[in-house]
Amino acid sequence: MYAFSSSNAFASTRSRRVTAEAYDLHRSVPADRWCVTYLDLAFLRREVHFGLQSGEIRPEPGEDASDAYGPSIYTVTEQYVKPVTRRAGKMSWALMRHPAGLKCEVFISHAWQEGVFEFLAKVRHSWPRGMRSAWCCMLANPQNLDISSFLVSPKTSPFAIALNSCKALLGAGLGALARVLEARRSYYFLPACTELVLGFCFVINNDGMRRVMHFVGVVLCWILLVRDFGGVLAGFVGHQVKGFPSDDGEVRVVRCFFWLMTSIAFSLMEVDRINARSSVAESEELRLGYEGSIQYARCSQEADAVSIRREISDQVDQVDHAIHVLLAAGMSTPALREIARSVDIRHAAFAEITGAMFLLGPFATTAISTTVVDMLRCECLWHRVVLVIVSILSRLMLFALLCRSDWDEERFILKVMNKFLSVAVICWLSTLPFLLSLHVSKPGCALFWLFVSDFLLLSMLCIAILGIRGTARLPFGRQILQIIFSRGRNTLLSSVDPEAYELASSGSEIPDTDSDCGSGSSDEFALES
Fold it and tell me: Annotated region Disordered: where (predicted)?
């Protein structure tokens, strides 16, 4: 009996020491560093899968334990996270993996009843590029400790600290804005530019017809490409072309290049279509449970909800405004909140990549290749070389701006590029018949095209450098922004109802056929800087 009592006393003493050490660890490592990595989530999935197979994790009755859904996060926390971290020293799963902590870049919100496999799959699929670590409630908090000491005030709680430190927010499928902390975050996300990671989206009114159109377009382009390439190959093999290609050979080479670029365009449009399928559903998911104001947001503990509402009681209007901008635009940033009253910013987060890719790629390639060929023929004039250099440098600067800009400015630049590309194509198609009627030579047509494209590129570069706020300060800047942000049949509108964004946030609508957003289904959304 004595030995048994001594053993119990030793175990109790050791347990208290371990508990104290766990508390000390969590106090020494800032709450916003209780993070895990993308690879940690992959490891967690393997561990849960092994636990299911070995019987260590037993799903509750009614839970779907399939690989697609998995046991609930609550079950995994009780039967895996708690036992594992208890044996390791009662720290959180995140600090068990990374005792020194990791910088918080992504905040992951989840629901306790959702399936862990589905949750992990969506998080890994939606993981913002360029970010390494994420703060997730079930993994960040020490599940074997009483964390009430960390929850003295909502403003100083681990959740709030992590939210204010992160650059991106991934939300679970129960209506993030229906939860008080995430709704509050929509306003306090001022230091970073936030947005809904809805993917690069393209015009879709009928998803099925778009898919058929893209497939047929690619097939026809490759049929025509093979035909023209066969003609070029036959000409060279037959020694019909000597030195530089004949006029017929040049035409066929140009046509090959054209069909190749067109097939790539259809492929990029299909990529945009696939990415866009989740856009509207993600927007609807964000609206789920939101009743028009943060005042109606829910919290698992009513006392916490009352405390949070008390802290932000004098900022409800600002928070609601930030949320309305988020719902309308797909992102809520200081720049968008400034212009939202006078510019229709609906779907500002959506931008297709097809136009931008072509503007930076094939058009630049065409300018370079035609100039090089003319230089080899000793037919290239100095002013044409200058135009080509301006064209190339402008594109390089645009690409650099895209890489270095915040997320809302990147979306803005993509929209600017797409709008100006449309203007360039319209100018070219409208003036080409006129030039041909005047019997202008091919070099003359190429020179005219370079001049127009350089003018548009420089204009585009100026707007991209100014950004959203700088453009808004220009004379007629709000009208310029309206044209850039507007979509479809609204493109020619120069002003809108100041409350248009609020109306847009009251329901989810399918974008116009000339817009850059589509329909589909997904349960995950993301806010990203």
Answer: 504-529
Are 168 and 105 in contact, with CB atoms under 8 Å apart? yes
Q: Model pTM?
A: 0.59
Strands 168-171 and 106-108: parallel
Q: Which residues contact residue 270 at a Cβ distance below 8 angstroms, ignoring those fewer than 6 apart?
A: 211, 214, 215, 218
How far is residue 311 CA from its own chain's centroid?
A: 31
513 is a domain residue: no
- CB neighbours (10 Å) of residue 14? 10
Structural domain harbouring 388: 349-486
* Whole-number pLDDT of residue 465: 92
Could you give the CA distance from residue 124 to residue 281 in angstroms, rounded to a whole number? Answer: 18
Q: Which of 476, 500, 474, 473 shows the shortest CA–CA distance to 486? A: 500
Residue 12 domain flag: yes
How confident is residue 335, by pLDDT bands cut at 50, 70 and 90?
confident
Phi, psi for residue 444 in degrees, rounded to 5: -65, -40
Give the CA dihedral 104, 107, 113, 115, nearest 10 degrees: -80
Mean pLDDT, the chain, rounded, equals 72
Token pair of 4 as six digits: 């048994």
Domain's final residue, options 116, 137, 172:
172
Residue 528 DSSP one-character state: E
Q: Rounded to 5 degrees, what are φ and ψ at 336?
A: -70, -35
DSSP 74-134: HHHIIIIIHHHHHHHTS--HHHHH-TT-----EEE---TTSBHHHHHHHHHHHPPTT--EE
Q: Is 41 left (phi over 0), alpha (psi -120 to 50) or beta?
A: alpha
What's the structural domain count of the chain? 2
Q: How far apart are alpha carbons 271 and 32 in whole angstroms?
A: 36
Distance of CA 306 to the CA centre of its chain: 33
Q: Are 199 and 125 in contact (CB under 8 A)?
A: no
The two three-digit tokens of residue 118, written as one number: 């589905």
CA neighbor of 419 nearest in space, from 470, 376, 449, 456: 456
Taking the C-alpha atoms of residue 237 and residue 216, their distance in angstroms, rounded to an integer, is: 31
| 502 part of a folded domain | no
Q: Which of 119, 148, 172 lies at the terminal end of a domain, its last residue? A: 172
Three-state DSSP at 3 gives helix
Confidence of residue 442 (pLDDT cuts 50, 70, 90): low
In a domain, 29, yes or no: yes
Element (H, E) at 390: helix 382-404
Return the structure tokens found at 496: 């809108």
* DSSP string covering 170-232: EE-SS-GGGBHHHHHHHHH--SS---B---S----SSHHHHHHHHHHHHHHHHHHHHHHHHHH
